[in-house]
Structures are given as C-alpha cells and as structure tokens.
Design a protein that fits this description.
heterodimer; A: 455 residues; alpha+beta; PmbA/TldD fold; 2 domains; 6-stranded antiparallel sheet; 10 helices; B: 496 residues; 8-stranded mixed sheet; 24 strands
Chain lengths: 455, 496
C-alpha cells in the first residue's frame, strides 16, 4: 500500500506551501482492513481492503471549505486543495468558527500498534475459523457464524498553526454466533473478543461460549411483559451505553438542547457508583491519542459518582462557549455528529456475574441487544430487543431460556436502578468510526419489557 | 516510482482510461487458473451542503476512485485497492487469489447461477447535472430556506441540506461481461429541533435522514420545494411541544408514505433478502422468518398487498442498469396478493436454492464486496384515496415522519415512532399528537392492511442509509408506496 508517515508529511508540506487560505488543515486516514466471514460453518466472504483518504480544510476568515480525495497523486491533491479553497471563498462566514486548533501536547504516549495483528494472514484467520467450526461440530453444533477481522488504522493531521501528528493502531475482533438447531430455528448463542493484539484473542474460548449458550437456549418460553430485574452481560451494557453516548455526551447536543445532560450538570442523575469517562490513555482502551483535528484526547469524566459532570468538545463547540478548549473529540470535520466520545469506559464494581444471578429472586439474564434506537433522546428513552440468549432467573438460578423481549426504557432511570456492577470489564469495537467501549456487566432493577417476539 | 497507468497511457483520468484499466485487470484475471473472476472499478463524486441556524455547517466535495476484484478459486476471495499502477493491479489480483485459497480451507464448491452475459452501458436519465449548478446558487437557496424556518425562539436547530452523488462504474468478468454505468442521485431536505426547556421535538420535510432522494438530476431537488415547506414544517415542530401525548391502546393506523417506506424496508425488504434467509448474515444483521420452505406458502399480508423489487423503476434511488455482478436490472414479485412469492437473490444463492436471480447484488463503493441489497422495494398502489381512508376510519392515528425504528433479528417484532401523529375520530382528523409509536408482528400487521391509496398518491421515496454487512456497508435504496391503513394495531408503547 502506498503511503507512510513520511509521505504524508511531504504531501502536507506541499499543501501548506501552496495554500492561499488563511488557515489550512490536512488530514490523511489510511486503513487496511482484513475480514473473514463464516456462515453455516463455511467461509463465505473473505476480503482485504486498502484505502487512503486525504481531506483538506481551507479557511478564509470565518469561511471554511473542505474537499477530499483518495488519490495521493500530486495533481489530485492539488485539485483537492483548489476545491477546498474555492468552496471556502464561496462560503458564508460562520461567527462561531474560532479557527483551527493550535498545537498542544497530550499525555498518552503509548501506540496501540501490534505487528502480529498487522501481519496476520488470511491463512491464519481461516485456520482459526476452521478450528472453531470443528470444535462446534464435535459439540453437536453444525452451524456457526461470525467474522474474524484485523485492521490497521493510520491517522496523520497537520495544520498551518504547526499541528503535526501521526499515530496508528491495530485492532482484532472475533465474533461467533452458534445456531444449535437450525431446522427448528432455535439455539442461538453469541460471544466475541476484541484486542489490539490478535494473540490475545482466544478463538476457542469465543467459539465455546457461543456454542454453550446456543445449546442452553433451546425450547424458549414466553414470559409476561412488565418490569423485571435484569443481569446485562457487558455487550448488552455496551449497546445501551453507545446510545447514551450519542444521545447525551456531546457538547453539541447540550448546546442545541438535545441532550439529557442539558441543565443537569452538578446534579446526581445516576446511581452514585456510576463513573463513565472517555480516556484513550487507559490501559484497557485502544485508539488514537489525538482527534481528527490533531488535538490530544483528554480524559473526560462524563458521569462522576453518578453526577452529570462534563461532556466532550471539538474545537468548534469549544469556540461557542467562554474559556472552553477542545477536549480532543472531533470527528473528521466537517461532521454533523462531532464531537463524540469514542473511547468510553465505565468503572467496575464488586459483583461477579454469578453473584448477580445468585442474588436475583426473579429476573432476566441478557446476552446482548439488537437494533436499539432512541425513542425520545432528551428523555433518554431507548427501545431494542434481546438477542442470542435470554434466560429467566428464579431464586438465584437460571431456570430456562426465554423468547426474545423488547424493552422500552428510560436509560437515566435504569442507571439509577443499578443494583450491582460487574468486577471485570470487556472491550468492544463500536462498529463505525474507530470507537471502542470497555464496560462491565450490570444488574439493573425494574427494567421495562414492552413486547415479545416469536423466538 | 511506477507511473499511474491512467496517466501513462493518455495523461487524463476519464472513461477511456478507466476502460483500459478494467481491460488490463480482466486480462490478468483471465490468465489465472481460477473458476471465476470479476473486476469492478468505480469513480464516485459527492457533494454535500448543510446549512444550520443561518450558517453553513458543512460544504464538502469528495472523490474516491478504486477497484475491487472477486475471485472464486476453491473459495471466495475479494481484494480492493486504489493503486492504479500495473503492479498494483497485479498485486491486488494476487491478494484476492491468496484470500480465495485461504477460504477454501472451510468452503464447499461454489456454483454461480448462469445468467445472460452483457456488454452494454447505462446512464441515469436526468435534466440538470447538480454538479454543474453553481455552488453559490445552491448555497443562497439553502440560506433562504433556513431563514424561512426561523419563526420561533423555541426552534433551537433549523437545518437544511443538499446532496448529490455521481458514480461511474466499469464491470468486467471472466465470463465476458463488459458493462459501463453512470449513476446520478440528488436530493435534500430540512428539519427543525424545538425545545421549551421541558420537552424536545423534531419535525422534518419531506422526511428524516436528510430528506428525500432520487436517481434524477437537480430538477428533483428543485421539485422538493423546500422553500415552500420551510415555514409550515417549523410551525408544526413548535406545535408538537404543546400537543397531547399519543394515547395507549389498540386502534387503526394510517401510515403516510414517508413512514410506510420504512415499514416496507424493515418488514418486507430485509426479510426477503435470500442471504439472510440462508443464514449468511446471522452473526450481524440477523436472519429472516421468511425461510425458503415458506416460499409460495406463507400468507404474508392481506390480498391487497403486492410488493415488488424493481431496479427499473424510473427515478428510484435503487435504480440502475446492471447490478454489481453483471445481472441486468429486472422487476420481480416478492409478495403477490398477500402471498410470499419471491426473494432478492444473488447468483450464488440462486444456484443453491433454485430461486430466480434478482439483480440485487450491490457494493458500497469500490472498496466493498457486493452483497444482496434492496433495490426499489415498492408496495403497489391500491384503489382508495387517502381522503376516503380517513373518512372511513372511526378511531385511528395517522403516522408521519420517521423518528424511531427497531425490529428483531428475524424481522418479526417491530416498533416504530414518528415525529407527528394525527388523531382521527369519526372520519375526521381531530388533532396533532406527539411521540406516536406503534408495534406489531410483521405478518399479522400486513394481514391487517385493509386499504391502500391509489397511483395518484404513490410516491417513490429514497432511503440513503441502509446498513448491512461486515465491514458495515451503507446502501441507497428506494421504496414506493401510497398511504395505507392497518387495522387494530397497538399504539402508545412505553412509559412517558
């Protein structure tokens, strides 16, 4: 693949030299993505992708324009600069735009780049998948599904104020779904594992967990709708936290009165054991140490001891408030979704998942959620369904599997009703943007199930 | 450094050079001892303009060029690259083949359904190229639209946008296909977010997800008449703050086309994708309750429900000449007189099951692998008018404007919420209501469809953000429909 830090710097230097704009920003994202998908215990899709995206932001006064290309050819880059400048000239002034960020040093020095992940081959992925398939067959499960992905992400950002940063990281992610009884459309089980280092992925453990869940998820029963105590495994927690992030943790959402955090800063809005923060420097996290504007990512304590504390900023939203600086959470600009917390962690507690189940008189164990969507973002109401393993808990024991259930729940109320927090947390890739969450299991009381399905 | 062969051969990027590269690639593929190979090159240009609260939030012009190579050599292999050098093409072929060989470790023999092989070209018909309209003209118009929405202090965010995409595609296969296409898509919309400190509401026109989109030129954007709808949309957004909460219970519902398009998308489009039904999306998007043994057996809807997959529909966002494995666009029945009769199917899945190939394989850009994607999944018009439907409704709610959508991984249990609802009593629209939601089970819901409006009220909407696949791919699809009524549906879900 063409392109390296040095080449990116040369391209950027030329753009800076030739630009006529008052300010200019060059952002280059290079990604290598390899993914092996398997279904019905066969590899059915297997890909290798390489791409580079060069984006240029040109600024005249308070007018900005942006253009991008995926060609590193000198002529294409020149054309891209010319387009960005032309757009900026024809643009209207934005009084809230306070300029591109100035250079700043951050604290994260660690690079989450692991050669073994970057060099992992299609043969190695296929071998691991084959071993999962064979293990499942030996356990009597003829159909497993999933994906084994390895990727390398590179980000270079420079601007005419002297910002110049480069970083890269690797990520490996393995998922397995088992369908233990395809003919009768039942026996769904799931597991996954994510790490910067592919050697940390215990593929057999992932496969075994999915198969075990699938085999224990036969002959599901319906249950009356209503409020139940729930034990949410970490992936289920990740799903709802992701929507909490998108609905509430951004300065833009607060400024536009679209966040449940608006007007609540300093108030206790969740259980006092809840601490949610964005911190790429945490040892349990992977990602770039700076954002897509080249601003170092600060640790932002969003929910501190249950209190609505802070939200994340990019340079634009910081510029709209007095004495506020970007916290380093810009997406590739311009971007209506920016800023966004992309390295979220939740503090662990002192419960094991087994203890959560043991202390439940009547409740529901949830493996993960499917298709969650906000119903009312400011009221933090979310809906979604359970998937790939839902069980009834009675008298501290798992009784039997349940048909999947739909919840429609106010998340702030749910996080006020936390009874127990898991003592371990697990890392998950968000699925879009290089964003990661590290979260524990939760036991939540009075979780509202409003619908059920047929399986 | 090796020269880019586009530049080497003629010094310009353009059709002739792209064609040459594809021919070079397919020649190289032809030299390999492989079962099948195809080479797909795309050049994609996009333009987006977002105006928010009187300033321009974003103007961006993007271009992306590259190619993807599919190979069957014991198993499937796919590699994509933007390296246009001869060695880059050869290296990408080598990589795709290596991946295919790796797949063969856990792959049965792959068979592709025979198709007619084409050497042809196709272009989206349009009147006005949106990329040739002056930026200033588009910007001035959007600024005026945005200003027109500024009618009340409770409007915290007022947005409007313009989007255009132009894609040149070149496809060739080792079976002899050579297809060139130029696809053009245009659209836009507006929306407001309102807040009174206690509640927040949203209202959009002509729909959420940035408005409406078609495979047409700038004339489509002009015909949306954003300026004429700006004030009324903003006003209704403000009115929602004081509107009553949606009632709970069971009643008849009438879906306007912007919401019905999504209902068709989620509860008919996705479950009739054969790859889902066969399990190949089981670990991500999910499977389908519409499994092959139900084909021709399942009473999916009432006998007035007819749904087709139609990539030939004029102006549809999912309209094209050929899909990304060279199958000529064709219309097929999915639901006929309420019966489940057809699938959206790839060549591979058709060969496995004996169903017809449907021209549904599409990739998000050049970088991704083609997978089964909706084209235009259209509910055929009925013989009512919306006015008649309302007049003959004793108690019901009209749902308008997508706000919240969720469905299970077999596409059975769904729950939708819209921006606005209108309560109907004794055949008349009584009042605006907020936070309307409804829920149901797919086949029960469609069996309760008892009225569909006619051709005059039939609209072909564009949904620009359908997600599927790993890595995630986003696809533009179309859904045509007319306002329709569904009996005895549960509304007003959850605690408010």
């Amino acid at each position: 693949m063409v392109g390296s830090e040095e080449k990116f710097k040369n391209i950027s230097d030329k753009v800076m030299k030739e630009a006529e704009a008052d300010e200019v920003e060059v952002r280059i994202i290079k990604s290598n993505n390899a993914l092996t998908r398997y279904a019905n215990s066969q590899i059915h899709q297997n890909i290798g992708q390489e791409d580079v995206d060069i984006s240029i932001r040109a600024v005249f006064g308070k007018k900005t324009g942006a253009a991008s290309t995926n060609s590193l050819e000198e002529r294409s880059v020149k054309n891209c600069l010319s387009k960005a400048e032309t757009i900026a000239i024809n643009q209207k002034s934005d009084p809230d735009f306070k300029g591109l960020p100035k250079p700043k040093e951050g604290k994260k020095a660690r690079e989450d780049y692991v050669e073994n992940t970057a060099e992992f081959t299609p043969d190695e992925r296929a071998e691991k998948v084959k071993e999962i398939i064979e293990m499942a067959r030996n356990e009597g499960v003829d159909r497993v599904y999933g994906a084994f992905q390895t990727e390398v992400q590179n980000l270079f950002v420079a601007n005419s104020h002297g910002v110049q940063k480069f970083s890269r990281f690797t990520s490996a992610n393995l998922t397995t779904t088992a369908i233990a009884d395809w003919d009768n459309d039942q026996g769904f089980g799931w597991s996954e594992s994510c790490s910067a280092d592919v050697r940390d992925i215990d593929h057999m453990q992932v496969g075994r967990t999915a198969v075990e869940k699938g085999l224990n998820n036969m002959d599901t029963k319906k249950i009356d709708l209503g409020e139940y105590d729930v034990v949410l495994e970490p992936l289920a927690v990740q799903s709802i936290l992701m929507y909490m992030d998108m609905m509430g943790f951004s300065a833009k959402k607060v400024q536009e009165e679209r966040s449940f955090m608006k007007g609540k800063f300093g108030d206790k809005i969740m259980d006092e054991r809840v601490n949610i923060y964005d911190d790429v420097s945490n040892a349990d996290m992977i990602g770039y140490p700076f954002d897509y504007e080249g601003v170092p990512k600060e640790k932002v304590e969003i929910i501190k001891d249950g209190v609505a504390n802070k939200v994340v900023y990019d340079s634009y939203t910081a510029g709209r408030e007095k004495n506020k600086e970007s916290t380093g959470h810009a997406l590739p600009m311009p971007n209506p979704m920016s800023p966004l917390a992309m390295n979220l962690l939740m503090d662990t507690g002192d419960y094991s998942q087994e203890e959560m189940i043991e202390e439940t008189d009547k409740g529901i164990l949830v493996t993960r959620f499917n298709y969650c969507r906000p119903v009312h973002p400011v009221k933090s109401i979310l809906t979604g369904l359970t998937r790939d393993g839902t069980w009834l808990i009675e008298d501290g024991e798992i009784k039997h599997p349940l048909n999947n259930l739909r919840f429609t729940q106010n998340l702030i109320e749910a996080f006020n009703n936390i009874e127990g927090i898991g003592k371990e947390r697990k890392l998950f890739a968000m699925g879009f943007y290089p964003a990661y969450f590290s979260v524990p299991a939760l036991k939540i009381n009075d979780f509202d199930f409003t619908g059920t399905t047929e399986f | 450094m090796e020269a880019n062969i586009f530049i080497l051969r003629s010094g310009l990027y353009g059709g002739a050079n792209m064609r040459e590269l594809v021919e070079f690639g397919i020649d190289e593929l032809g030299k390999k001892d492989i079962q099948y190979g195809d080479f797909r090159l795309s050049e994609i240009n996009t333009e987006v303009i977002n105006v928010k609260n009187g300033t321009v939030e974003a103007i961006k012009s993007s271009e992306s060029k590259g190619y993807g190579i599919r190979i069957i050599d014991g198993g499937w292999g796919f590699a994509s690259s933007a390296d246009f050098t001869e060695s880059g093409v050869k290296e990408t072929i080598k990589r795709a083949r290596k991946i295919a060989r790796a797949s063969s470790k856990a792959s049965d023999t792959i068979k592709l359904e025979d198709i007619e092989i084409h050497q042809d070209s196709y272009s989206t018909p349009y009147k006005k190229d949106p990329f040739k309209v002056e930026l200033e003209e588009k910007l001035d118009y959007l600024m005026e639209v945005n200003e027109r929405m500024d009618i009340d202090d409770r409007i915290k965010v007022r947005k409007c946008n313009f989007n255009a995409w132009k894609t040149k595609k070149y496809f060739a296969s080792t079976e002899g296909a050579k297809i060139e296409q130029e696809l053009l898509k245009t659209g836009g919309g507006l929306d407001v977010n309102v807040s009174d400190g206690e509640d927040t509401q949203k209202r959009s026109y002509p729909n959420s997800f940035g408005g409406d989109f078609n495979s047409r030129g700038y004339e489509f954007f002009e015909n949306l008449e954003l300026l004429e709808h700006a004030e009324e949309t903003a006003k209704e957004g403000v009115d929602l703050l004081d509107a009553k909460q949606c009632p709970e219970g069971e009643m008849d519902i009438i879906l306007n086309t912007n919401q019905l398009a999504l209902q068709v998308h989620e509860s008919c489009g996705h479950p009739t994708e054969l790859d889902r039904a066969l399990g190949t999306e089981a670990s991500y998007a999910g499977t389908s309750f519409m499994t092959p043994e139900k084909l021709g057996e399942l009473q999916y809807g009432s006998d007035i429900v007819n749904i087709v997959s139609d990539p030939t529909a004029e102006g549809g966002l999912g309209t094209f000449g050929y899909d990304d494995e060279g199958v000529k666009a064709r219309k097929i029945d999915l639901i006929k007189s309420g019966m489940f009769v057809g699938y959206q199917a790839s060549r591979e899945d058709a060969a496995k099951t004996g169903v017809e190939v449907s021209s549904s394989m599409r990739a998000d850009g050049w970088k991704n692998l083609p997978i089964v994607r909706m084209t235009n999944i259209n509910l055929q018009p009925g013989d009512w008018s919306k006015e008649e439907i309302v007049e003959e409704t004793d108690k019901g709610i009209i749902f308008d404007g997508i706000k919240s959508w969720s469905i299970d991984d077999k596409r059975l249990n769904f729950q939708f919420g819209t921006e606005a609802g209108y309560l109907v009593e004794d055949g008349e629209v009584i009042k605006l209501i907020k936070n309307p939601t409804y829920t149901g089970i797919t086949y029960e819901f469609w069996r309760n469809c008892d009225a569909i409006a006619g051709e005059d009220e039939w609209i072909l909407h564009g949904v620009p953000n359908c997600g599927k696949g790993e890595p995630p791919q986003t696809m533009q699809v179309g859904h045509g429909c007319a306002p329709s009524r569904f009996k005895d549906i549960r509304v007003g879900v959850g605690k408010w």
